[in-house]
């Protein structure tokens, strides 16, 4: 499987070392990333993290000017001497959205194209009133989780909606005695995406509590108005 990375963003790369069908730990590991022109960026051993037996990771900050196209990641281990290679596709940052292409089948079981994922991301931008290109780095981890889910669900749904961008905006469809009522988002938003967006912090239903003098204990006026202890608050008038 080809890993997708975006210019100017980070991507976590994983290398697995096998010997005799079993995972093994080399004594040292280095990483080299070869771009389409053949130029190699060598990553030192100190930047590689040991995750488990035979499994190492490296988080690469893709240069903003990194050449677009297929790169080759080469993991080199010593003692034992092992080499592992994987393909890495670097694309323009404008192709990035709230989730990545491998996220969609992982979450939904549906394979989509990069173009369909990007279209879904733009849909979620509109529905969430946040643009990934502008706000992607300013959103909290919890909101990022729900936006990632929403985008994946939207991408899977869009793949089957051949007229998604040609529909009329309708809430009620009637034909004779048959009547169909739709949600306000039914024509452009996937059901699971709508549920995920409802959990995004700035899209949740909110209530405002107005402090009331007799229930919030605001000083003297917070006394029970029916109690004799509050008699002094109002003047007595003779009958």
Descriptive tags:
239 residues, alpha+beta, five-stranded mixed sheet, three-stranded antiparallel sheet, 5 helices, extended
Protein model, in words:
The chain is α+β, with helices and mostly antiparallel strands and 239 residues long. The chain has helices spanning 103-108, 114-128, 132-135, 141-158, 191-197, and strands spanning 3-6, 10-16, 18-19, 22-23, 28-34, 40-43, 49-52, 55-61, 69-78, 82-91, 172-175, 178-181. The strands form four sheets. Strands 1-10-9-5-6 form a five-stranded mixed beta sheet, with no helix packed on it. The protein has a three-stranded antiparallel beta sheet with strand order 2-8-7, with no helix packed on it. β7 and β8 form a beta hairpin. α2 crosses α4 (141-158) and α4 (141-158) packs antiparallel against α5. The protein is extended and about 105 Å long. The model has no long low-confidence stretch (mean pLDDT 85).
In short:
By secondary structure, this protein is of the alpha+beta class. It has helices at 103-108, 114-128, 132-135, 141-158, 191-197, and strands at residues 3-6, 10-16, 18-19, 22-23, 28-34, 40-43, 49-52, 55-61, 69-78, 82-91, 172-175, 178-181.
